[in-house]
Design brief:
Layout: H1 18-29, H2 34-40, H3 43-62, E1 66-67, H4 70-79, E2 102-103, H5 107-136, E3 140-144, H6 149-182, H7 190-199, H8 213-220, H9 232-255, H10 259-267, E4 270-275, H11 279-292, H12 310-325, H13 328-333, H14 339-354, H15 356-365, H16 374-385, H17 390-401, E5 411-413, E6 421-423, H18 424-437, H19 446-457, H20 465-487
Antiparallel strand pairs: 1-2, 3-4, 5-6
Length: 490
C-alpha cells in the first residue's frame, strides 16, 4: 500500500497526487457541466487550468529538495529515458548514501522538475505529434465510398496495419478524415470512431518501436529494434477480435439507418483518390530522425552522436517543408487547422508536470507492490497507462521488471535496468499493457484526443470522458482478460 504520508521528505506524500487527479477530473467533468461546457471549449482556458495545476505541483517541489544519484541521472538524460524529474536514485526511499547529492529546496528543484517534465518528456512528445499531424494534414485521401460494414472494417484494418510502420499518430491522422467523409451520410457512426481509436490510435502500433512511444522508449533503453515483432500474436488476436466485433456491430447499425441515409450514401459516391503524396517523403524523414538521431547512441555505422534536440529540429523541418510545399487547397479540403493539436498541447503540458508526483511514487514504491508474474505487469502497466501517459508508465514498469530475475524465464541482456537484464515474458507484458490499454481513456495516448477533436469538428457528438470509458470497459476489458489467460498467466 502507498502511504499518504512519508517520514522521508524526499518521498512524496500520496496526497500530492491531487493536481494530477484534478486535471483528469477537469477533462472528464467540465464538458458535462452546463455552466462550464462552453468555457471549456476554449483551448486558452484548457491551457489556463493546466498551468494552474502544474504550478501547484511545482509549489510542492519548491518546498523540498530532490535526491539525484549522479550516475543514474547522467544515464537517464544521456539515453533520453523520460523518468520522473525527482526520482533518479534507486535508493531514494532510504537515507541518502555518500556521494548522492540532493538539490536544495527551492528553485533548483523546480528547475530540475521542469527540465525533465518539459524538455526531456513533453517537448519530444509534442514535437513528434505536431510533426506527424502537420505532414499527414497535407495528404488528402479523397472520395466518398459506400460506408458499408465491410468497407469500414477494411479501413480500420488498414489503419491497424499502418500504425506500426508510420506510428499511431501518423496512421490516425492519415485516415480519420477519410473515414469521417465516408460515413458522413450515416447517422450511426460514433461506434466507428471509437473502434478507430481502439485499433488505429493504439493497438495497431504494437509491432515496431516507431509504432507507439512506449516501445520507442524501450528501444532507447536497449531493446532490439525488431524484438517487438515477437508480439505479433498478441497484436493479431486483439486486432482480429476487435475487427470481428466491429463488423457485426456495424452491420446492426447499418440495418437500423434511415432508408434516406442509405440512399444518400449510395448516391453520393466519389472514387477514392490520394493527393499530396510528396508528404510521404517528409513522414519518412520524421521516422528516420526518430530512429537514428538519438543523442545517446551513435548514428548507425559511425561513431557520431547527434547533438541534443537535432532529432526534434529535423522533425520540425519536415513539418515546415510540408507546409511550404503543399498547396493550401489540399489543407482546406482536409479541413486542416491547429485546434486538435492545440488541445493536446494545452492539456498535456499540465499532465506531464502534474504526473511527476505519481510517477515518482511508483518509481520509489513500485518494487514494494509485489509484482512478479507477467499478468501482474500487464495489468499494472495497462491500468496506469489508461490515466498516466503510457510512455513514462512503460519506463517505470520496465525498470521495476528489470530488478527481477524470475526463475525459468528467458532473459534479455545489455539493457538499461538495475540488473542489466529483463525477463522476456515480463517485457512482453509491459509492452502490451502500455500499448493496448492506452486505448482505455481519451488521455491514455496522444492520438486519442486528436481523433476525438477532429471528429467533433466534423459534427460527430463524441462520448464524454466517462462515456468513452463505458465503451472501453465493456469492449476492451473482456478482451484483455482473454489476452491475459492466453499469453500472460505466468
Amino acid at each position: 500500500m502507498l502511504a499518504f504520508s512519508s517520514p522521508d521528505p524526499y518521498v512524496p506524500s500520496a496526497l500530492w497526487v491531487w493536481p494530477f487527479v484534478a486535471i483528469l477530473l477537469a477533462i472528464a467533468l467540465l464538458p458535462l457541466i452546463p455552466r462550464t461546457h462552453h468555457w471549456w471549449e476554449s483551448n486558452r482556458n484548457k491551457f489556463l487550468v493546466s498551468l494552474v495545476l502544474a504550478a501547484c505541483t511545482l509549489a510542492y517541489y519548491h518546498g523540498r529538495g530532490t535526491g539525484v544519484h549522479a550516475s543514474h541521472s547522467h544515464n537517464s538524460e544521456e539515453h533520453g529515458a523520460p523518468t520522473s524529474a525527482a526520482a533518479h536514485s534507486d535508493s531514494l526511499a532510504t537515507a541518502p548514501a555518500a556521494g548522492v547529492p540532493r538539490t536544495p529546496p527551492g528553485w533548483p528543484t523546480v528547475k530540475a522538475v521542469l527540465h525533465h517534465a518539459v524538455l526531456v518528456e513533453y517537448v519530444p512528445f509534442i514535437v513528434l505529434l505536431f510533426s506527424l499531424y502537420v505532414i499527414t494534414g497535407g495528404i488528402v485521401v479523397r472520395g466518398d465510398i459506400r460506408a458499408t460494414p465491410a468497407i469500414n472494417t477494411a479501413i480500420l484494418a488498414t489503419g491497424g496495419l499502418l500504425a506500426s510502420f508510420i506510428g499511431t499518430t501518423g496512421a490516425a491522422m492519415l485516415l480519420i478524415r477519410f473515414l469521417l467523409k465516408t460515413n458522413s451520410e450515416r447517422a450511426r457512426k460514433v461506434h466507428t470512431i471509437i473502434f478507430f481509436i481502439f485499433i488505429v490510435a493504439n493497438i495497431g502500433g504494437c509491432l515496431l518501436p516507431i509504432g507507439d512511444p512506449p516501445l520507442f522508449l524501450g528501444y532507447l533503453l536497449g531493446v532490439e529494434f525488431f524484438w517487438t515483432l515477437r508480439l505479433w500474436r498478441e497484436w493479431a488476436l486483439m486486432l482480429g477480435m476487435l475487427l470481428v466485433i466491429y463488423y457485426f456491430w456495424d452491420r446492426w447499425a447499418y440495418r437500423h439507418e434511415a432508408p434516406e441515409a442509405i440512399a444518400r450514401d449510395e448516391a453520393e459516391r466519389q472514387p477514392m483518390q490520394v493527393d499530396g503524396l510528396h508528404n510521404v517523403l517528409y513522414l519518412l524523414g520524421v521516422l528516420f530522425a526518430v530512429a537514428t538521431l538519438d543523442p545517446s547512441k551513435a548514428f548507425p555505422g559511425t561513431s557520431w552522436h547527434a547533438p541534443p534536440y537535432l532529432r526534434e529540429g529535423v522533425q520540425l523541418a519536415m513539418a515546415g517543408l510540408s507546409l511550404l510545399s503543399t498547396p493550401q487547397l489540399l489543407r482546406r479540403e482536409n479541413q486542416f487547422n491547429y485546434r486538435a493539436i492545440g488541445e493536446v498541447a494545452c492539456l498535456f503540458i499540465g499532465i506531464f508536470v502534474t504526473m511527476q508526483v505519481p510517477i515518482e511514487i511508483l518509481q520509489l514504491r513500485g518494487p514494494q507492490l509485489g509484482l512478479r508474474e507477467p499478468w501482474h505487469f500487464f495489468w499494472a502497466t495497462g491500468l496506469l497507462s489508461s490515466f498516466l501517459d503510457n510512455a513514462p508508465t512503460y519506463v517505470v514498469y520496465f525498470e521495476t521488471a528489470g530488478t527481477l530475475r524470475p526463475p525459468g524465464m528467458p532473459l534479455l541482456y545489455n539493457l538499461m535496468t538495475a540488473t542489466g537484464t529483463i525477463a522476456a515474458p515480463l517485457l512482453a507484458a509491459v509492452s502490451c499493457g502500455a500499448v493496448f490499454m492506452g486505448a482505455n481513456t481519451y488521455i491514455g495516448n496522444g492520438p486519442n484526443f486528436m481523433v476525438k477533436s477532429i471528429a467533433e469538428q466534423s459534427g460527430v457528438k463524441m462520448p464524454s470522458f466517462f462515456g468513452y470509458m463505458a465503451y472501453s470497459g465493456g469492449i476492451l476489458i473482456p478482451l484483455f482478460v482473454l489476452v491475459t489467460l492466453i499469453f500472460f498467466r505466468g
